[in-house]
Amino acid sequence: xxxxxxxxxxxxxxxxxxxxxxxxxxxxxxxxxxxxxxxxxxxxxxxxxxxxxxxxxxxxxxxxxxxxxxxxxxxxxxxxxxxxxxxxxxxxxxxxxxxxxxxxxxxxxxxxxxxxx
Length: 117
Description:
It is a single chain. By secondary structure, this protein is mainly alpha-helical. It is built from one helix and no strands. The protein is rod-shaped.
């Protein structure tokens, strides 16, 4: 009976030692996991902030692009209006030159008639 008790005690001590080793291993791994999880959480927070910043930049650039597109459209319209105005002035100037040449010819003819008189 004494041997049995001694063997049971020995077995219980070995099991307790194994449990203690296993608990130490588990505690060590839990500590590593907590550190890893903490680092990964910080990294996720940093990346989330970068994504939010990127989204804000995209929104600002989209707004800027819309404004610039409107400005370009306004400039194109202004160029078209200026071109049309220049074409009208060109036609008017052409008529003025034609009238001036006709008047010059008439003055020369009148001068010639007066010289002959």
